[in-house]
């Protein structure tokens, strides 16, 4: 979840803080990160989890406070975008680490 190399846990796996592009190799141990295939798994999982959490929360907020619909649209858009952007990188890193852990023989450099 720390967005670090799954092999050495020291090198950063992303090119920069602001995007989801992976480095080709770990800067510390030289591990080949290009073999990673997290695909859409982290995004789909995040959609399901956020949908499961935010829809009931929005209904509870509507029941208790009864804000206008335009206020709902503004609030939940910002909350959804913020949670998505905040959780996508760590979740993608976690999937990469799980792939490394369970398919280590496929990723060995030797």
Question: Which secondary-structure class do the elements indicate?
Answer: mainly alpha
Q: How large, in whole angstroms, is the Cα Rg?
A: 18 Å
Query: What is the residue-mean pLDDT, rounded to a whole number?
Result: 88
Helical percentage: 55-70%
Number of strands: 0
Main sheet characteristics:
none
Query: What is the global morphology?
Result: elongated
Low-confidence stretches at least 5 residues in length (pLDDT < 50)?
A: none
Structure description:
With 110 residues, the chain is an all-alpha fold. 57% of the residues lie in helices and 0% in strands. The protein has one domain. Helix 1 packs antiparallel against helix 2. The model has no long low-confidence stretch (mean pLDDT 88).
Task: Give short descriptive properties of this protein.
single chain, mainly alpha, 3 helices, 57% helix, 0% strand, elongated
How do you describe this structure in short?
With 110 residues, the protein is an all-alpha fold. It has helices at 41-65, 69-102, 104-107.
Describe the protein's topology.
Elements: H1 41-65, H2 69-102, H3 104-107
